[in-house]
Design a protein that fits this description.
Helix content: 55-70%
Order of helices and strands: HHHHHHHH
Largest sheet: none
Number of strands: 0
Number of helices: 8
Structural class: mainly alpha
Number of domains: 1
Low-confidence stretches: none
Distance between the termini: 34 Å
Radius of gyration: 19 Å
C-alpha cells in the first residue's frame, strides 16, 4: 500500500512535502503555508537562480550606481530580456515577471522585489496545477481538487515579498527552515 500519490510525484522533494501537507487532513493551513517557501527554495536552488539574480541585481541595483546617467526603462527591459533563462522554467518566469515589474514603472530594489515575488507566485500556482494533475492520474478528482485547493490556500497565506527579499539576499532574514515533523502521538494537533 502506498503512503499517497505525493511519493510518486515527479517533482522536487520540497513539492512532495508540500503535496503531502496539502493532502493530509491533519495538517493545518499554517503548516501547509510553511511548506510553500521550502518547495520554491528547492526550485530556486536546483535552477541556480542565485547566479541568475546576480545579473538581475547588476542591471536593477548596481547599474544605477556605476553610471552617471540612469538607463532608460526600455534599456533596462532589454537587458533583463537578454539574461539567460532557457532550460530553467523558474528563471524564465522570474525574467518575465521582472520585465513586467519594470514595464509597470518599478525600478531598483522595488522592481527586484516585485518581479521576484510575482515570479515565485506564478511558479507556485504552476506547481499546484502540476500536483493536481499528478493526483488526477494517481487518485481521484475530489482528492486532486482538495490538494490543489489546500496548496493554493497555503500560497495565499504566504508572504511572497518576504520570500523574494530572502531569496535575493536583500535582508538578514534567515532562509526557510526545515518543516517541523510530527511523528509522535504526543505531538498532537496544535491548539490555538
Amino acid at each position: 500500500m502506498s503512503d499517497g500519490p505525493h511519493r510518486s510525484l515527479p517533482m522536487r522533494n520540497g513539492w512532495k512535502k508540500l503535496a503531502e501537507r496539502g493532502d493530509g487532513k491533519l495538517h493545518t493551513p499554517e503548516q501547509v503555508s510553511a511548506a510553500v517557501p521550502l518547495a520554491l527554495a528547492d526550485d530556486w536552488k536546483e535552477e541556480r537562480c542565485d547566479g541568475f539574480m546576480k545579473g538581475v541585481k547588476n542591471i536593477l541595483l548596481e547599474g544605477d550606481q556605476n553610471t552617471l546617467f540612469k538607463p532608460s526603462k526600455q534599456e533596462t527591459i532589454d537587458a533583463l530580456r537578454n539574461l539567460p533563462g532557457s532550460g530553467y522554467p523558474l528563471r524564465a518566469m522570474l525574467r518575465d515577471a521582472l520585465v513586467q515589474a519594470v514595464d509597470d514603472g518599478h525600478n531598483g530594489e522595488a522592481a527586484l522585489v516585485k518581479g521576484t515575488a510575482d515570479g515565485l507566485a506564478i511558479r507556485c500556482s504552476a506547481g499546484a496545477r502540476q500536483v493536481e494533475e499528478h493526483y488526477l492520474l494517481k487518485s481521484n478528482e475530489n482528492r486532486a481538487t482538495h490538494v490543489r485547493g489546500r496548496i493554493e490556500d497555503g500560497a495565499f497565506r504566504s508572504d511572497f515579498d518576504a520570500m523574494a527579499r530572502s531569496f535575493c539576499n536583500l535582508n538578514k532574514a534567515s532562509s526557510p527552515s526545515a518543516i517541523n515533523k510530527y511523528d509522535s502521538l504526543d505531538d498532537g494537533v496544535p491548539h490555538p
